[in-house]
């Protein structure tokens, strides 16, 4: 875990948290006993995550995508975030190491990568402070359980994601994949996340 909940007896109130990186920063000298620690600086590298798959050459789409996903974690750096307390010579070393320019450097006041705070709401037992889970709806025309292909032939269907369920899309693909009149299924998959 990147964020740790503190015991109530050592913090003011019921909910106290600390970044794991703050603990490491404070006690880094214990990790390197017998050595002089000259500095400890946070940084975060964002790598290029483009998937390049040649659809013309593919025998097995699944294998190609799995290979690209594996290689993605080793993609070129596109952005470097560093704590604003990081010395210039360390920033320059990191930029050089990851082959980035000054325009890809972002100096951050405070903790680097606040996305880690997304775990905190799940650690706090206060349902009164949380939104109720959202249930995505299905258009009335599609609730009857009839064929989605028939419904689409009768009238256009507009789905607005994530506010409406993705299940009709899955049902559409399932029906189309076994329908003898369907020649091809083509779609554009957008990156989400």
TrEMBL record:
Residue span(s) of domain Polyphosphate kinase C-terminal: 148-192
Residue stretches making up the Polyphosphate kinase middle domain: 1-119
An example Gene Ontology biological process: polyphosphate biosynthetic process
Gene Ontology molecular function, alphabetical: polyphosphate kinase activity
Keyword terms, alphabetized: Kinase, Transferase
Gene3D superfamilies hit by this protein: Endonuclease Chain A, Polyphosphate kinase middle domain
Gene Ontology CC annotation, any one: polyphosphate kinase complex
Domain of life: Bacteria
Keyword Phosphoprotein: no
Pfam families, sorted: PP_kinase, PP_kinase_C_1
Protein name: Polyphosphate kinase
Taxonomic path: Bacteria, Pseudomonadati, Pseudomonadota, Betaproteobacteria, Neisseriales
């Amino acid at each position: 875990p990147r964020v740790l909940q503190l015991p109530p007896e050592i913090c003011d109130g019921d909910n106290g948290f600390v970044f794991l990186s703050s603990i490491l920063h404070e006690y880094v000298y214990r990790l390197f006993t017998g050595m002089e620690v000259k500095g400890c600086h946070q940084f975060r590298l964002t790598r290029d995550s483009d998937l390049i798959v040649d659809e013309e050459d593919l025998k097995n789409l699944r294998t190609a995508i799995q290979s690209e996903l594996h290689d993605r974690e080793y993609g070129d750096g596109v952005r470097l975030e560093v704590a604003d307390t990081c010395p210039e010579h360390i920033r320059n070393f990191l930029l050089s190491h990851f082959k980035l320019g000054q325009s890809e450097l972002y100096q951050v006041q405070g903790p680097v990568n606040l996305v880690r705070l997304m775990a905190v709401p799940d650690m706090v037992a206060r349902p009164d402070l949380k939104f109720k889970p959202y249930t995505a709806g299905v258009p009335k025309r599609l609730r009857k359980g009839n064929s989605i292909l028939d419904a689409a032939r009768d009238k256009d269907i507009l789905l607005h994601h994530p506010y409406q369920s993705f299940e009709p899309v899955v049902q559409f693909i399932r029906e189309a994949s076994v329908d003898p009149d369907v020649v091809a299924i083509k779609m554009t998959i957008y990156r989400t996340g």
